[in-house]
Amino acid sequence: MSTVMNHSIALDRRSTGAAPAKAATSRIADDRTLLRTAAEISRDLNAPRPAIYWTDLLLSVAIGYGALFAAMTLPSVGWAIVAGMVSVLALYRAGSFIHELTHVKSSALPGFRVAWNALVGVPLMVPSFMYEGVHNLHHARTRYGTVDDPEYLPLALMKPWSLPLFVIVSILAPVALLFRYAVLAPLSVFIPALRRKVVEQYSGMVINPAFRRRHPEGAFRREWHLMEAATSAWAITLLTLVATGIIPLKAFLVFLAVAAGTTLINQVRTLVAHLWENDGEAMTVTAQYLDSVNVPPPAFLPMLWAPVGLRYHALHHLLPGVPYHGLGEAHRRLMKALDTDSPYHKGNYAGLPGLVGKIVRSTMIDRR
């Protein structure tokens, strides 16, 4: 997901120092062989398998909340930290299913969306409406990499200080979400101007600060309001229980720390999900693929920091309809079917350190 849990940050494109010349990626023509082969080899992989989704989600939730409780209650600081780290990874994996919700039809996974929101979205204050209706714009052919893409910033063309700011600010996301749902949401019911601002600027998991979200309509509007009301009630209840001492302050701070850990890992993953080299021009599908990143096996750690298929982010931009459990097989088939000079092979990278280094080096190029 881009962003998959990407939280808004105040990085402005107009002060990035981006080059006025068109990025090379915007001039890449589509590779018809790649697109045709990807479509052909994935025809039998498009159906989501409910048993995999439910088992994965429920195990992640059980481990995540179990470890969170242990982190709150264990007397040993060392073991509490270990439990906290386990909780971060498990809840991060559970949270990453929000990306799947935007691509899989609800009818293919009956009850899964409701269950995800009840178990993850509302408790972690990231209900699915914050991604639904937003992430699909990132996949729009004419929007990707442009100023109209909610999940894109030309990070590789920005100043070097932009990268640490981009990552560090994510730690504040849980506190910002508490404020959004416990304070701004209730107030916005009575203040129309505030409501417009909350909907347009504080209701999407985006990284483009120029993006303004449209107000919801129809059935989605009712679903939005239900999810928002539930999350607001949870946030207010949580703060009330802490203020009255029913929930110990230590337990509350551990919860915030674990939630911050999930957003931090996700922001690091987001940092390397793309090469971020486009300067605003519309791109072909092949160009979008080459500006995105796969971190396939044999690398092991991406299973932790890019779970639920996110390690195949570039492939996902080729085949957004393939569920996460089918991406590994699609990757293996494409690696065998395509020649070594195919653009597909150029979208695969060895791991996190090399990708971070590549983006850092790009920000240090003088483009004046």
Description:
The chain is 54% helix and 0% strand. It has one domain. The chain is globular. The relative contact order is 0.19. It is an all-alpha fold. It is built from 17 helices and no strands.
Short description:
The protein is mostly helical and 368 residues long. It has helices at 32-41, 50-73, 77-95, 97-101, 112-121, 135-138, 162-168, 173-188, 192-201, 218-243, 249-271, 285-290, 302-305, 313-318, 324-337, 343-346, 352-363.
- N-C termini distance: 33 Å
List SSEs in N-to-C order.
Answer: HHHHHHHHHHHHHHHHH
Main pleated-sheet profile: none
- Mean pLDDT, rounded to whole units? 92
Give the oligomeric state of the chains in this entry, treating copies of one chain as homo and distinct chains as hetero: single chain
Give the overall form.
globular
Domains (count): 1
Give the beta-strand count: 0
Indicate the radius of gyration in whole angstroms: 20 Å
Low-pLDDT segments, ≥5 res = 1-23
Helix tally equals 17
Structural class of the helices, strands and pairings?
A: mainly alpha
Helix coverage percent of residues? Answer: 40-55%
**Beta-strand residue percentage:** under 5%
